[in-house]
Amino acid sequence: MQEQTKKVLSGFEGKPNEVIPMLQAVQNEIGYLPEEAIRDIADHIGIPESKVYGTATFYSQFYFSRRGDRSVKVCLGTACHVRGGMQVMDALEREMGIKAGENTPDYKFSLERVNCVGSCALAPVVMVDDDVFGRLVPKQAKEVLEKSDPKV
Amino acid sequence: MIQKFDVIEKEALENLEKEQKSDIPQIYVGCATCGNATGAQSVVQTITDKLEKENIKAEIKEVGCIGMCFAEVLLDVIKPGQPRISYHGVTPETAEEIVDSYLVKDDHRPDLALGYFGEGGPADVERIDTGDVFKNQQRVILKNCGIIDPENINEYIAHGGYKGLAEALEMKQEDIISVLKDSGLRGRGGAGFPAGRKWESCLKPQADQKYVICNADEGDPGAFMDRSVLEGDPHSVIEGMTIAGYTIGSSKGYFYVRAEYPLAIKRLRKAIAQAKEKNLLGDDILGTGFNFDLEIFQGAGAFVCGESTALVMSIEGNRGWPKPLPRPRTTEEGLWGKPTLLNNVKTFSVVPQVLSKGADWFKSIGTEGSPGTAVFALTGKINRSGLIEVPMGIELKKIIYEIGGGILDDKKFKAVQTGGPSGGCLPEDKLHLAVDFDTLVKAGSMMGSGGMVVIDESTCMVDVARYFLDFTFEESCGQCVPCRQGTQQMLEILNDICEGRGREGDIEYLLEMGDSIIKGSICGLGQTAPNPVLSTIQYFRDEYEAHIKDHACPALVCKNLIVFHIDEEKCTACGRCRKACPVEAISGEKKVPHTIDQNKCTKCGICFQECPERFSAVVRLTGKENLAAAASGKEG
Ligand SMILES: Cc1cc2nc3c(=O)[nH]c(=O)nc-3n(C[C@H](O)[C@H](O)[C@H](O)COP(=O)(O)O)c2cc1C
Ligand code: SF4
Ligand code: SF4
Ligand code: SF4
Ligand code: FES
Ligand code: FES
To answer: Fewest CB atoms within 10 Å of the CB: A51, A93, B111, B605?
Structure first.
C-alpha cells in the first residue's frame, strides 16, 4: 500500500458505509484516485474492487487520473450561464488549447465546469483553486491564466 | 424554562459584554463566500494590521451574508451611540480611509457609504433598512445572517438562540408537533410538504433508533440560500435538528452537505463543537437526560442525492439511486432501515423561532396556505443580486423591481425562472402573481428551494430550456428508461433547434416526450425534468418557432443562427476588433472599414464587445437570409 493512502485509511474503521468519506480523504491527499488506491480501499473494507468503483464512478467529484496543479473551474450555474459563462469557457478552452475536463499537457492547469459557487452577483465567475475572478468577459481569459500561473 | 439554560444564557450575555466592549467602535466585514470572493479577507487583514499598528481601539468581526451581495465588499461600522453605517465596494485602500476618517476622526464619508441602519443617521446618506432593498423584506430565517458572528455561539444565544430548544425540552413531544402543525410550516426544500405531519409520522413508529437528516445538498445549479444559512447562522440549523431529535425520539443526526461547501462545513464543525461544550448538544442535554449527536456527511457531486431515498443510499455508502417503487416512506424506513426525518436547511433553521415565538406569530406572516417567509437567491440580469427573504404572498414584481432594483443595463425584462431544473419560467404578464407554493405551481413554475433567476431580452429561452435539460440529462441516475432516454431525446431536439436543424412538429414532439417522462419516472428528478421546456413552450412558443421556421434566434444568442457583421457606415477603422480577434478573421487597414471573414469567424463575440459603444459598428444578424448571405461568402 502506498504510504499516503495508508496514512489516510488508518483514520477509518473500514466499515462499508465509510467508502465515500474514504474516497474523499484519499483524493484530498493524492489529488485523484489511482487504481492502487481504489484497491487499497476495497481491501481495507473487505469488499470487491468493482463495488468501490461502482460507487466512485457514480459521483462527479471523483477523478481517476492525474490532474493539473491548479484547477480552473468555470461556473456554468444558471446565473453565470445567462450572463455569458459559456463564452468565457470557450475563451479559456481556446487559450489553454484543451477542452473542459482535460489537463494542459504540462499538467500546470486542469479545466472544468462547475455549478454555482455562491458568487452569482459577480457572474460570470471563474475560480482558480480558491481565487475567484468575477464579472469576466472572454478576452480576460488570458489574464486569468497569467495571474494564476504559479511561477508568476 | 430549564434553569440550566438560564445560567448558560446569562453567561453568554456576560461573556459577550466582555468580548464586545460596546464602548469602542465595532467593525463588521461580510465574509461569506461572495464577500471573500471580492476580497473581504484582505480588507479584514488590512484593518486588523492598521488597528494594531496605530493602536486604534475597535473590534473587528467577520459576519455572514446580509444579502446585499451586489455591493460587496461590505464593511459596517458602529460607533458607540451611533447607528450602523454600511460601506460598499470596499477595498483595502478605502478601508484604511474609512478607519482614518470615520474611526479616528468624525467624517462618516458619505462618498463611500451605502447607507445606515436604524434611526438617527447622518442626513447625507440613505437609510437602508427602510429603503427599497429591505422595506419589502422580512427577515426570519435570515435574521442573524450578516448580523452575528457565526463562529461565536454567545452571539447566537444573545440573539434568542437555543431558547426554542430549552422550551421544547420541557414540552411533550405531541405538543411540539401540535405547534408545528398549527403553524402551517411547510418544508423549504421545494415541495412544501407540511413539516408537522412529517414529524408526526416519524414519531409514531417504534424503533430502537431513529435518525434526523438535514438536506444541505442544495442541488439547484444557480442558487446559494442554504449555503448562506449554514455559513451565516449554523447554530439555528443545529438547534432545529436537536429539537427534531427530541421530538421524534432520535439520538443521532446527519448533515448531508453538498461537496463544494468548504466554508459551510468549517462553520458547522465549529458550531457543533461549541454547542457540545455548552451542553446544548451531545450527552444529557441541559441535564434533561436527552442525548443527541450530529455528524457531517459530505456529498460527492450528484444532484439526484438531494432526493430523500437517494440521499439515504448515499450516506449508507452506495450509489445515490432513488429506491424503486413501491418504496417505503423514509419516515418509516429510512437510513439503515430506521425511521428517518429529512428536512431542508431552512426548515430546521426556522423551527426554533416557531416554537419560541409561537404558531400564531408564524401564521401572521405570509399567506394562509403558505405561512412564513421565502428565501431567494436573486440573480441573473438584475441590478441588485443577492440573498433576500420576503413574506410569502409578495408579488413577483415587487421582488424584481423594488428589491432587485430592476433589470441590468436598462434592458427589457423577459422572464423569471424559479425552481431550478424542476421549475419554470414566467413571463411579464405573470409578474402580478403572488409568490407561494401553490400559485407558482398553478402558473407552470414552482417555488423550489429558492433560486430566482431574472432573464432579459438578451437571453434566448430555447437556450435556457436546453441548459436545464442538459443538466438533468447529465444528472439522471439512469434507472428509469423514460428519464434516461427521454431527457436525451429532448436534449437532442433542443440542440437541433438551437443549431438550425429544427423541424416542423418538433414542438409537439417535445410536449409529448415531456408528458411521458413525467409519467414514467420514479423520482422527482425525472418527474420534473421537462418543466423548464414545457413552461418555455407555454409562454415563449414564438421563440421556438422563430428558431425552427426562420433559423432566427431573436435574442441573438444561438451561435449557429447568428453572424457577426461590421457595418461599413459606422466602422471608423480603429482596428480594435482586428487586434482582439483570436482567430484573425478580421481584416482592414487604416481608414478602410473592416470586414469579417465568415469562414474563419468562430463567433466568440469578442469583436462585438471590443467595438466602442459610440461606434457600435459590429452587429449580430440572424435569420435564414443573413445566414445564407454569410455562407455564400459575401462580405460579413
Ligand atoms: C432530484 C431532487 C433533488 C433534490 N434536491 C434537494 C436539495 O438539494 N435540497 C433539499 O432540501 N431538498 C431537495 N429535494 C427535495 C427532497 O427530496 C425533500 O423533499 C426535502 O429535502 C424535504 O425537506 P423539506 O420537507 O424540509 O422541504 C430534491 C428532490 C429531488 C427529487
Ligand atoms: S427519474 Fe431519473 S433520476 Fe429519478 S430514479 Fe428515475 S432515472 Fe433516476
Ligand atoms: S466573433 Fe470572434 S472570431 Fe468572429 S470575427 Fe469577432 S472576434 Fe473574430
Ligand atoms: S472596433 Fe468597431 S469601429 Fe473599430 S475597426 Fe472594429 S468594427 Fe470598426
Ligand atoms: S451561478 Fe455562477 S456563481 Fe452562482
Ligand atoms: S455573500 Fe456577501 S452579502 Fe451575500
So the answer is: B111
Q: Closest Cα to residue B239, out of B212, B205, B266?
A: B212
The domain of A14 spans 3-58
* Residue B596, beta-bridge partner list: B586
Of B194, B276, B290, whose CA–CA distance to B246 is shortest?
B290
Closest-CA residue in chain B for A124? B380
Instruction: Assess whether A76 and A19 both reside in one domain.
Output: no
Contact yes or no for A81 and B467 at CB 8 A? yes
Contact B296, B254 (CB under 8 A): yes
Length of chain B in terms of residues written: 636
**C-alpha A63 to ligand 6 mean position (Å):** 31
Can you read off the three cell numbers belonging to residue B232? 451565516
Pairwise CA distance, residues B534 & B525, whole Å:
15
* Spatial distance between the Cα atoms of B590 and B414, rounded to a whole number of angstroms: 41
pLDDT of residue A152: 42
Q: What residues of chain B lie within 8 A of the CB of A19, using their CB?
A: 317
Other CB atoms within 10 Å distance of the CB of residue B616: 12
Q: How many CB atoms lie under 10 A from the CB of residue A80?
A: 32
Are A117 and A75 in contact, with CB atoms under 8 Å apart? Answer: yes
Smallest CA–CA distance from A45 into chain B, residue: B317
CATH no. for residue A128? 3.40.30.10
Kindly state whether A92 is in contact with chain B, defined as any CB-CB distance less than 8 angstroms: no
Instruction: List the grid coordinates of B263.
Output: 466554508
Q: How many residues does chain A have?
A: 152
Domains of chain B: 18-133 (3.40.30.10), 161-363 (3.40.50.11540), 373-456 (3.10.20.600), 461-550 (1.20.1440.230), 559-631 (3.30.70.20)
Q: Which residue of A has its CA nearest to B583?
A: A94
B585 touches ligand 4 (CB under 6 Å)? no
Count Cα atoms within 13 angstroms, Cβ side, for B15. 13
What is the pTM assigned to this prediction?
0.95
Binary contact (B222, A20; C-beta < 8 A): no
Choose among A18, A24, A122: nearest Cβ to B38.
Answer: A122
DSSP tally for chain B: helices H, then strands E? 25, 18
Helix or strand run (H / E) with residue A72: strand A70-75
Q: What is the pLDDT of residues B241-298, one digit of tens each?
A: 999 999 999 999 999 999 889 899 999 999 999 999 999 999 999 999 999 999 999 9
User: Does residue A43 lie within any of the structural domains?
Assistant: yes
Cβ-defined contact of B385 to A125 (cutoff 8 Å): no
pLDDT digits (tens, 9 = 90+) for B302-326: 999 999 999 999 999 999 999 999 9
* Mean pLDDT to the nearest integer, A120-146: 92
Burial of A26 (0-12, 13-18, 19+ CB in 10 A): buried
Residues of B numbered 403-432 whose beta carbons fall under 8 angstroms of chain A's beta carbons: which are they?
417, 420
